[in-house]
Amino acid sequence: MPHSRPLTHRQAVLTMIVVTLMWSIAGVVSRHLDAARTFEVTFWRSAVNAVALAGLLVAWRGAGPLWRQIRDGGWLLWASSACWCVMFTAFMVALTLTTVANLLIIMSLAPLFTALIARLALGHRLPWRTWGAIAVAAGGIAWMYGPQMAGGDERHLWGSLIGLTVPLAGATMWTLLQHSSQAGAAAPRDMTPAVLLGSLGSAVLTLPGAWPFQATVHDLALLGLLGVVQLAVPCVLAVAAGKVLKAPEAALLGLLEIVFGVAWTWLGTDESPTPAVLGGGGLVLLALAGNEALALWGGRGGREPSAEGGTLPA
């Protein structure tokens, strides 16, 4: 595997900004599809991502080392792959049912879900700032989805519920990694092979529902763009930046995906966030940003489980 010079801190920050910009295009691109729907959208995006990521990893590491990492990854690699499969599949399905802003704000809850699951499963103590962030975020979510629960659009409600599995799967994956590390197992810190396997799993899982294919050439071009530019390339870049940045730094920068994603959709489509989404989503972002900023200023960023789930793409 070829070695490259590590990024400087400034380069890592700029890289993460570029990564979030690339992650954020999924919503606006998906709104310009002609004929592809739900499972076919998910299938093509996951399949193209798997092919592109496999090519990048083979070019970067060589086929032999990549195969050995997959072969020797053990249960943790496959459990993480299952989590990625859920994230890839649920994200695109939810995106066809609800608004981009709804889904991105739901996904941003991954750090708080990670903290709660680690508290329940591993006994991690949560600082008061995290409990406060959870309370404020819960209020924001109630503000956002109260109208839906009170008789709003049932389609949006289902999209929100399906989207909720994305941060839950991400939080589960990080908790498994932490449990394995505590137990002294050989847990791979670089989880890009799990991303590759998760993409393959998502493509296989959605193929029956995607058949017969209806995507136009235009659709295939856009979905190929998502598979390569929105997933495969930023995934590799995020791995490089993540080796330099503290977890709260990466989580704070990861919140830019929401800002960019909502802005792209607002400018590139006729989809506008409702006042409830803007108000409740603002509370959620405030809670997350405050929690991670306090962690960074407190100098405990690299060891807190709550931060890691915030930089996962889907």
Automatic annotation (TrEMBL):
Record flagged with keyword Transmembrane: yes
The protein's name in its UniProt record: DMT family transporter
PANTHER family found in the cross-reference section: ACYL-MALONYL CONDENSING ENZYME-RELATED, BLR4310 PROTEIN
Transmembrane segments: 12-30, 42-63, 75-97, 103-121, 128-145, 157-177, 193-214, 220-241, 250-269, 275-297
Domain EamA positions: 12-145
Domain of life the protein comes from: Bacteria
Source species taxonomy: Bacteria, Pseudomonadati, Pseudomonadota, Betaproteobacteria, Burkholderiales
Record keywords, A-Z: Membrane, Transmembrane, Transmembrane helix
InterPro entries found in the cross-reference section: EamA_dom, EmrE-like
SUPFAM superfamilies, per the entry: Multidrug resistance efflux transporter EmrE
One Gene Ontology term, aspect cellular component: membrane
